[in-house]
Amino acid sequence: MDVNATAPGNSLIPRTKVQFIALATTIALVVVSLLAYLFWLRPAIPGRNAVLSLMPEDAQAVLFIDLSDLRREPFFSDLLAWAPKPDADQEYRKFVRDTGFDYERDLHRVAVAFEQQGVGAQKIFFGVGDGHFDTKKIRAYGKKNGAMQNSGGTEIFSLPIAGSSARLSFTFLRRDRIAFTNNNDFGSWLHGAKLVDDAEWRERFTRVAGAPVFAVMRNEALKDAFGGEPASQDLARRATGGFSSPQLSSLLAQLQWLTVAGKPENNKLRVALDAESLEDKNAQQLADLLNGVVLLARAGLSNAKTQQLGAATRQSYLALLKSVEVSRIDRPDTKTVRLMFDVTPDLLKTAPNYAPAGTRLK
After folding, report:
1. Counting beta carbons within 10 angstroms of the beta carbon of residue 266, is it exposed (0 to 12), middle (13 to 18) or buried (19 or more)?
2. Is the pLDDT of residue 139 over 90?
3. Angle at 278 between CA 57 and CA 259, to 5 degrees
4. Cβ contacts of residue 81 below 8 Å, gap of 6+?
5. Contact, 305 vs 314, CB < 8 A?
């Protein structure tokens, strides 16, 4: 038998064992690369990067929510049931009817940047959202209920904000992308907008590429939230459910960056907080304090005085505390404390809503 004879049939069939292994390896690498793209790199798609790149470089904080990703998760229905909603009154129904837009259905993703220009100045936000928009209806609504001006060939609509002297301005960047702000000089920002070239922002956006919802705050925003007088620390009180700790507030106010990200995992939301400090001493103090708070909270829930909370409430809080992980990550420029925990549907059922029932959100 001539083992060197040419194999009959399809010329693409490997002629030797080495060729067969090479072909199989190539196919395996292609499959693995495709799976990696679909499951790990998919969140960093151009649509996500595009709205984030339009955030102002001098922003103090950026909030991002990808509703398209969240809607596919089982946890999202539990989150919607817990979250406060605008009053479904006649005025809101009329808005949906006139514009054809319902954010729960039509908004795909949104990024909002917050900044404050000087002490005592108005807090400014800039937002960019992708979604399904009936541009004809929305433009007609803007002209009828507000004002429209042309800035460099761009139509900018301005609407009054209920209960405030400020106005909400918006414009279409393209058919499926809208930009909005409460800044009176919207035109200057639009024409001066460029892709974010700040490596610090880009680096933190990349770290949370797998999370459909996150917020990134830099030092200025943290000082404003945690470094002021106790009476003015509204954000700090809301974020901790009324818990107040001068030592914790002081450490948070000294951070350079704070990133909060949430990623649904089956029927729960995995939350991760990265607190970045310039000094190792401050990071270690924060890690020790967080571990101490968790231990005290666990002990407190085991106390007989907490029986009045009810068995379901106590169990959901205990489950939260058991999921807490505090760790250290030392990067070249910052010393990071990472806090991770799980939010479950049971916890949402027992936790109070952010806004009291009947409160009208403006």
Report:
1. exposed
2. yes
3. 50
4. 348
5. no
Is 225 within 8 Å of 236 (Cβ atoms)? Answer: yes
Half-sphere exposure of 213 (CA within 13 A, CB side): 16
Question: What pairs with residue 160 in β-bridges?
Answer: 167
Read off the amino acid at residue 344.
T
Identify the CA nearest to 207 among candidates 303, 355, 331: 331
Which class for 96: exposed (0-12), middle (13-18), buried (19 or more C-beta within 10 A)? middle
Per-residue CA distances from 261 to 196, 205, 275 (Å): 20, 10, 12
| pLDDT at residue number 77 | 78
User: Has this prediction a pTM greater than 0.85?
Assistant: no
Mean pLDDT of 180-187: 86
Measured distance CA(295)–CA(210) in Å, rounded: 30
Collect all residues with Cβ–Cβ distance below 8 Å to 217 and sequence separation of at least 6.
Answer: 60, 61, 225, 257, 258, 259
For residue 214, the surrounding DSSP H or E stretch is strand 213-218
Helix, strand or coil for residue 212? coil
Q: Give the per-residue pLDDT at 7.
A: 42
- The yes-or-no verdict on residue 40 having pLDDT over 50 is no
The CA-based angle 192-194-199, given to 5 degrees, is: 130
CA 229, 234, 237, 239 dihedral sign is negative
β-bridge pairing 177-181 and 213-218 = unpaired
For residue range 208-248, list pLDDT tens digits in order.
998 999 999 999 999 988 876 554 445 444 444 445 578 88
pLDDT tens, residue by residue, 143-182: 999 999 988 788 999 999 877 778 999 999 999 999 999 9
CB 64 within 8 A of CB 259: no
Question: At 43, is the pLDDT very low, low, confident or very high (cuts 50, 70, 90)?
Answer: very low
Q: Which residues pair with 214 in a beta bridge?
A: 64, 261
